[in-house]
Write a structure and sequence with these properties.
Elements lengths: L2 H22 L13 H20 L19 H18 L15 H24 L8 H13 L15 E7 L6 E6 L5 E4 L3 H7 L4 E5 L1 H8 L9 E4 L1 H10 L3
Helix pairs in contact: 1-3, 1-4, 2-3, 2-4, 5-7
Length: about 250
């Protein structure tokens, strides 16, 4: 996907997130994050957006963390969220293509990283807000959802921080049934998972049989792997313990 596509998704989902948060109210529970109320969700997203904006507009080459900031009063929460979201969209839209700044996952460029990461961060939390409001989930394009699965597998779960481990080694295959080439084989060991894209039968055969295969529409697969939707809507064949392993340890 192009950077402009990620920024446009960020723009749309950020607005939907704010609308849903406003509808739900600050005290509404967030079903997918039981320890949170909508107030906590808004503060989290607002801080992440401001942190990402700083990384884009004030380039830094060392790792940083979102700064703690005073929490807005309840009646200021949604306007504060909208303001930070707007600044992030503007920062990504106007940033130079050759931006040099820190990034924490592999990407074609730092700008591509921040556009992609913030689009997915915002889309997943938009789902949280709509679930809290009891509103229908706005559909995600299958291509974007498949990219989110790819970011999870080849980004977050390519590092030593991944909690997905298996000893003896096991193999998990994930496939989006409505998106071309959205097929991955993940080898789980006592170290970081190793993911290979297997977009056709030849590639899958080269990786050998999987101990467990999980498949479904890209949006369903994406949101389930982020633990935002139940697993029973996906088709799981083989050893269900690997699906349970993901449910317990897969979401970053």
């Amino acid at each position: 996907m192009e950077i402009t596509e990620f920024v446009e998704t960020l723009r749309l989902d950020g607005a939907l997130l704010a609308d849903a948060a406003d509808e739900a109210g600050p005290d509404a529970p967030v079903p997918s994050c039981p320890e949170w109320r909508v107030r906590d969700l808004v503060v989290h997203v607002g801080r992440i957006h401001r942190w990402a904006t700083g990384c884009v507009t004030e380039p830094r080459m060392r790792p940083s963390r979102p700064a703690e900031a005073p929490e807005p009063a309840d009646d200021e929460l949604v306007p504060w969220l909208r303001e930070g979201h707007h600044r992030l969209v503007l920062a990504l839209h106007t940033a130079p293509q050759d931006l040099e700044t820190w990034a924490f996952l592999p990407a074609p460029s730092p700008l591509a990283f921040w556009a992609r990461r913030q689009a997915h961060e915002t889309s997943v939390h938009r789902v949280d807000a709509q679930q809290a409001a009891g509103a229908p989930l706005t559909p995600l394009p299958s291509r974007f959802a498949a990219d989110g699965v790819d970011e999870l597998l080849t980004g977050f779960h390519s590092t030593a921080r991944s909690a997905l481990h298996a000893d003896p080694p096991r193999t998990l295959r994930l496939r989006a049934t409505d998106t071309p080439e959205a097929d991955w084989t993940v080898r789980l060991t006592d170290g970081p998972p190793q993911t290979v894209r297997t977009p056709d039968a030849v590639g899958a055969q080269a990786c050998g049989p999987a101990d467990c295969t999980v498949e479904g529409p890209a949006e369903q697969l994406y949101l389930t792997l982020w633990n935002r939707l139940p697993w029973d809507a996906l088709k799981v064949t083989g050893d269900p313990a690997l699906a349970e392993l993901w449910r317990e340890h897969g979401a970053p």
